[in-house]
Amino acid sequence: MKIVTPRLILREFQEKDIADIIANRNSNKKEVKSQILLNQKEIGKEKRENYSLGIELKSNHKLIGEIDIYRVDRFIGKATMGYWLGEDYWRQGIMYEAVQAIIEFAFNKLKLKRIELDTSTKNIPSNGLIKKLGFKYEGTRRKYHGPKTRIWHNANFYGLLASEYKTK
Ligand SMILES: CC(C)(COP(=O)(O)OP(=O)(O)OC[C@H]1O[C@@H](n2cnc3c(N)ncnc32)[C@H](O)[C@@H]1OP(=O)(O)O)[C@@H](O)C(=O)NCCC(=O)NCCS
After folding, report:
1. Alpha-carbon span 108 to 143, nearest angstrom
2. What number of other Cβ atoms are within 10 A of residue 72's Cβ?
3. Which end of the chain is more exposed for a tag (fewer CB within 10 A), N or C?
4. Of 56, 105, 57, residue with least CA distance to 81
């Protein structure tokens, strides 16, 4: 799967991305390889529960980040979102552009009704980004840990409903 935006290509991860991922995220080769293998298993599924897409910058063809729509529950119509971007690319509106594209995919193509995200109360960029995108703050959970991170933190919860997001 591939989503193209003015500056970006959101696409499946490939083995050739390993060096770029390590350069942009604090992780080791073994970890990255097993994540790519896991993602590749999802690709062929008829009803995917997880869309983990790499963010490729058109201008240099580098893999600079990731955006995920995961825990896709088609019966209830909801999914969780996650993202990271290499530090060299912060504050250029890149994730804002990537998230807008994935929101449209989730609401228009997957026909979901709700996207949710949690982020540490201390993560100023992520709290700022998600509010700018129109997600509503829905509360704070104490000593929460995300399914991926296993890091305990107080977490702000946000949700965006298809009915309140203007889709094309
Ligand atoms: C969170 C993250 C993805 C933001 O990506 P980004 O491309 O730099 O964000 P954008 O440039 O699209 O910013 C969009 C808005 O987010 C907010 N924002 C982003 N960085 C910010 C910062 N350092 N301080 C305050 N607000 C910030 C602003 O509202 C910004 O809009 P503005 O530039 O008009 O003020 C990036 O900082 C990152 O990868 N951080 C590390 C990983 C992480 O925290 N992942 C999220 C886990 S839940």
Report:
1. 34
2. 19
3. C
4. 105
pTM (two decimals): 0.95
CA distances from 12 to 9, 63, 91 (A): 10, 11, 24
- From atom 40 of ligand 1, which residue's Cα is the shortest distance away? 84
Pocket of ligand 1 (CB under 6 A): 83-85, 90-96, 119, 123-126, 128-129, 132
Give the phi and the psi of residue 65 in degrees, each rounded to 5.
-175, -170
The Cα 110–Cα 96 span in angstroms is 20
Question: Per-residue pLDDT tens for 7-49?
Answer: 999 999 999 999 999 999 988 899 999 999 989 989 989 899 9
**Two tokens at 34?**
């097993």
